Amino acid sequence: MSKSLLENKIFHDATKARAWLEALLWADGRVCGYCGTVDDSTELPARPGFYQCNSKECRKQFTVMVGTVFERSHIPLNKWLCAAFLLSASKKGISAHQMHRMLGITYKSAWFMMHRLREATTRLSRHGASQQIGLVDSDGNYFSFCDPAPLKATLRELDMNAGGALGADDTALSTGEGKTYLARSLAEEPFASSFIEGAATTRQIAKKLIFEGRRPRTKDERMVLNNYRAMQFIKARKDDPLTIPMLLELHKIVTEETMDNR
Ligand SMILES: [Zn+2]
Residue 69 Cα, ligand 1 centroid: separation in angstroms? Predict the structure, then answer.
């Protein structure tokens, strides 16, 4: 981390910090953080940094901190800027304890600042990563979703490991106890999935269908077998790119001879 950057006055002087933030946020005119009125406010000489909104409906006094993460805090703005800079500049992350020592503030204040700053960056990154799904509510707002990296990692972990052999180490599972475990979990998954969908089949029958090749006699049994075949299909194609024909094929396998409206 560059020392000279930290020597910048905005990190040491609250007035300089305020001037810097005002120039940054109000480049196109002073904005009232309460009502959004632009360029129609009066400076209050007795209270440096405070401005009176001239909008008749508002008339509130505001500072540049209103509506930002720095709002309603007794910690001087220069310390806030320093904390934000340290957080963004440190590659390995920084602890509240380090922050407390470096900025000469209490541990409690350091913890509070980090919490607020992290929350704000999370919100910002979510906003940037959100994807619209093409549906609009009655007020015209788009529905959107966001799958941040940690969520993606968890979902992948689930995909790979929650379904028996899909992500298992083949060599460890091809012999002895591993084989028994694999067979059990492979039979368990289609059984559990079908059970969730309402199929009334016992585990014994499910295993006969899957491992002894017994033909399904009811629609429920068919469902169990279909789920098993779908899993085999997915396992065989797990490295192929996802395509519409592949999804249709999968759909066909899952629903074969189980639909009422054929
Ligand atoms: Zn206002």
Answer: 19
